[in-house]
Amino acid sequence: MADQNLKVQPGGPYVVTGAVPLRTKTPVISEDGEPLTWRTGEITDEGAAYALCRCGGSANKPYCDGTHANNGFDGTEAAATDDYATRRTAYPGTGIDVYDDRSICVHAGFCGNKVSNVWKMAPKTDDTVVRSQVMAMVERCPSGALTYEVAGTEIEPDLPTEIAVIPDGPLWLSGGIAVERSDGQPVEIRNRVTLCRCGHSASKPLCDGSHKEAGFTG
């Protein structure tokens, strides 16, 4: 199979090559409005190449229909070019160390519930029930803003190599898909990455959660 990658086009879409599976992943929400887990949809595309909208204006989302050429879309990329290990903040626990990079958070909400959140729970991980819940919450974070280590080794969920469309939200790349910026520079390859598709992120090509304030749908 050809290399599976995504290239950001200057002022235009994301071009995906290498027959990367495309599907939808939707949060399962509790009666209290809390995201609990992900519902995985069927694969809708596995073509050799396809172009995905990043301006937010396509009438054929998630695909590009050329709208970016006429709606004043500014695709300037401003995401940090250093790596996660440099930016992350540590939250030590017992048998686990949690790490967080707020700059790539998409506010998916899996990191907390009406009782607590991973930051408050990290110091209480001497209780293995709490530790297990923290691990589960971190592993459901689509952007990889949250990670954890056990005995100094990073533990990542076993995710397929695919692109998932989060309804009214970003593209979720998993499995280490290579991303190339429009200037030819690589984005750090990670197991979990989320890319803006509303056109409003201040940290393009990465999502920064702006889709919610912008009222993006699609």
Care to describe what's here?
The mean pLDDT is 95. This protein has helices at 84-87, 118-121, 128-139, 210-214, and strands at residues 5-8, 14-17, 22-29, 35-40, 49-52, 89-92, 97-100, 146-150, 153-155, 162-165, 171-174, 178-180, 186-187, 192-195. With 218 residues, the chain is an alpha+beta fold. The protein contains four helices and 14 strands. Strand 1 (5-8) and strand 2 (14-17) form a beta hairpin. 11% of the residues lie in helices and 27% in strands. A five-stranded mixed beta sheet has the order 5-2-1-12-13, with no helix packed on it. It has a five-stranded mixed beta sheet with strand order 4-3-10-11-14, with no helix packed on it. A four-stranded antiparallel beta sheet has the order 6-7-8-9, with helices on one face. The two termini are 30 Å apart. The chain folds into two domains: 5-80 and 158-207, no CATH class; 84-155, no CATH class. It is globular, with a radius of gyration of 17 Å.
